[in-house]
Amino acid sequence: MLLEFKDVSVNYDKVKALQNVSLEVAEGEVVSIVGANGAGKTTTLKTIIGLLRPAAGEVWFEGERIDGKSTERIVRHGIAFCMEGRRLFPYMSVLENLEMGAFSRRGKDMKDGLERVFELFPDLHGREKQKAGTLSGGQQQMVTIGRSLMSGPKLLMLDEPSLGLAPMVVNQVAKTISALNTEGLTVLLVEQNARMALRISDRAYALEVGAVAVSGDSEDLGKSDYVRRAYLGG
């Protein structure tokens, strides 16, 4: 198993954000985590990447326990976190933003990474020197995903990549995630857009108030009455 999140609990002061949450991601999968605001989706990703420390439980990656390690070491180990809200450096160029994601790579590796990003997102061609803050929302999301890919991850974690985007751009993001997975990249996707998440993922977990409410194959969950009522509008 590539990633194992074992009986993890996380507290914000006296508030329990996660309560004994367990999930797994196998190499080559797309696994989605769906749920409403405040369900614990982002907290899960932040705990995996080392921005939050679990009060209980363990996080394992490639057979090595990583909870307690620094975020830098976890990134170098092969996990990239594409955060919600894009969070680019608006006054820096597209190229400079992409290079910020490649602090662990140099020389040919960085060049190959840049070529791959521009191949994946042709809309960014010719915009290398453009300030990131002047891009459209969809283009900014492309840069954000590209910046995460620049570290050469084995696991890409995406937090609400469709947030605030037009339906056409959401479809493009979904196709990009599927294309990356087809090439062999493992993806852990957090989404409020459950319909999109279930469509492109192999398995899914639904979180409610910091706990796993239901999990299973995405296709099966999409047909269940519970998931349809709770996340798909009936």
What does it look like?
The longest helix is centred in the C-terminal third of the chain and has 16 residues, at 167-182. β4 (56-61) and β5 form a beta hairpin. 36% of the residues lie in helices and 26% in strands. The protein has helices spanning 41-49, 71-77, 94-100, 108-120, 137-149, 167-182, 194-200, 218-223, 225-231, and strands spanning 3-12, 15-25, 30-34, 56-61, 64-65, 79-82, 155-159, 186-191, 203-208, 211-217. The model has no long low-confidence stretch (mean pLDDT 90). α3 (94-100) runs parallel beside α5 (137-149) and α4 (108-120) packs antiparallel against α5 (137-149). It has 9 helices and 10 strands. It has a domain at 1-78 and 190-234: 3-Layer(aba) Sandwich (Rossmann fold), CATH 3.40.50.300. The strands form 2 sheets. The protein has a 6-stranded mixed sheet with strand order 6-7-8-3-9-10, sandwiched between helices.
What labels would you give this structure?
36% helix, 9 helices, Rossmann fold, alpha/beta, 10 strands, 6-stranded mixed beta sheet, 4-stranded antiparallel beta sheet, 234 residues
Q: What structural class do you assign from the helix and strand content?
A: alpha/beta
- Low-confidence stretches are none
By CATH reckoning, the class of the domain at 1-78 and 190-234 would read: Alpha Beta
Number of strands: 10
Radius of gyration: 17 Å
* CATH architecture label of the domain at 1-78 and 190-234: 3-Layer(aba) Sandwich
Shape: globular
Residues in β-strands, percent:
25-35%
SSE order in H/E notation?
A: EEEHEEHEHHHEHEHEEHH
Strand order in space, largest sheet: 6-7-8-3-9-10
User: Roughly what percent helix?
Assistant: 25-40%
